[in-house]
Amino acid sequence: MKHFKLFTVSALLLFIFGNCASSTVGLATSNRPIPNTTYETIKTVDKVFTWYSIDIILIGASTDTPPIDKIYSDLVGTEEADAIVNIRYYNEKAVFGPFLRHRFGIKGDLVRFTNANANTTTTKGKTR
C-alpha cells in the first residue's frame, strides 16, 4: 500500500508539473513575390499572437485557429504597406497537462513599393 501511494503521488506530480515545450523557427524573404521591384522600408514590426487548445492523448480541440493569414493582413493593413520582407517567425507550443499554449511570433520589415523605377516591358521581354 505504501508503494502504491508513493507511485500515485509521483504520477500525479509528474502529470501536473511535467511540462513540455517545443519551438520551430523559420525565415522567409517576403509574404508575396517582389522580383525587381524597388521599395522603401516603412517600419520594423515585432508581434506575438497566442491561442490555446486542449489535447487529451489522441483527441484535441483548439479554442481558435492559427491566425497566420490574419497576422499578415493586420500587419500590412495597419501601416498601409504593400508587403512584409525579411520575415523571421517562430512557433512555440507549451504543454501543461492536457492544456496547450501556442504562441506565434513574427518579426519583419513593412515596405511600400515605389513607382519611380517602374519598368515597362515589351512583348520580347526587353525593358524600354
TrEMBL record:
Alphabetized UniProt keyword annotations:
Signal
Asked if Signal is a keyword of the record, the answer is yes
- Using the record, list the residue span of the signal peptide; answer none if the entry has no such feature: 1-21
Q: Which domain of life is it from?
A: Bacteria
The record, for NCBIfam families, names: LIC20211_lipo
This protein is called what? Lipoprotein
